[in-house]
Amino acid sequence: MYAFGICIDRHYLTPGLATIASLADSLSPRARKAAALRLLSFDLGPPQALLLAHLAKRAGFGSFALARRSPLRTARMATSDRPRDHHRLSVTAHIIRSPV
After folding, report:
1. Is 41 helix (H, G, I), strand (E, B) or coil?
2. pLDDT digits over 66-75, tens only?
């Protein structure tokens, strides 16, 4: 089993729904059943959460969870310029525009 994590808020509900549908289309039915969908939000209400849960179930994902968290008062940007970290995270330096 593997999990897909998405951060979503009420302003990006429609793109979030499209992302979930696109993800479902890219996976075989067997892979969807073995996959978990995890969402993180700070402002989705119960109707939006229910909509997302129904879509995940209808799309055939094995499990669904939505966590609500308050935004932090301050955020620190963390960057890494070590090539090892980019490979471990499967992200190239070109994508994140960080010198390597």
Report:
1. strand
2. 998 877 666 5
DSSP string, 57-99: HHHT-SEEEEEE-PPPSS--------HHHHHHTT--HHHHT--
Name the 3-class secondary structure at 1. Answer: coil
Instruction: Break the chain into its structural domains and give their ranges.
Output: 2-73
The 8-class DSSP code of residue 40 comes to E
Indicate the residue type of 97. R
Residues in the chain, pLDDT under 50:
84-92, 94-96, 98-100
Neighbour count for residue 16 (Cβ, 10 Å): 22
Distant-in-sequence, close-in-space partners of 23: CB < 8 Å, separation ≥ 6: 4, 37
